[in-house]
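Entry:
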Amino acid sequence: MAASAGFLRVWKQRLNLGVPARRAFWGQWRKKPEELEATEPAVPVEKQPVLVCPPPPSRKYLPPKDIQSRLEARVREIFGSSISKDWQQVSLGESKLKYCLLAQLAEDLGHAVPNSRLHQMKSVSDVLAFYKTPVKDVSKFDELSTQELPPNLRIRWQY
């Protein structure tokens, strides 16, 4: 008890006698916020615009009416004109030719074969079947809301 009372007396004396505390002593060497110099970067930095989240990409795809002639033209361009009349039975076994064909079709039509379906594209007829299939960009809930529902079925949209 006596030791703690003596310790308090020493600190009171320091405070009363004007002995600076540690922060005051070491703080005198620090620059004050007003004294900080604004340094400009050596390379001018362009302010980039604030990025706004883009809308989700639409997966909607309607096949064009001339899809068969477009695909035939691409196949003859990539595989050469030596293909027989049965061009739909051309095998896509060689990866480079398969990639070239699918990449050009994706660019032309704006609809790419997803990675999960690439292994199914074994011949040109598989590619034709894929690109003939229309894709809707509507969820099942949106489809239900536009349909005439039976009277005993109710959907709560807010939960």
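Residues 2-17 form the longest helix (16 residues).
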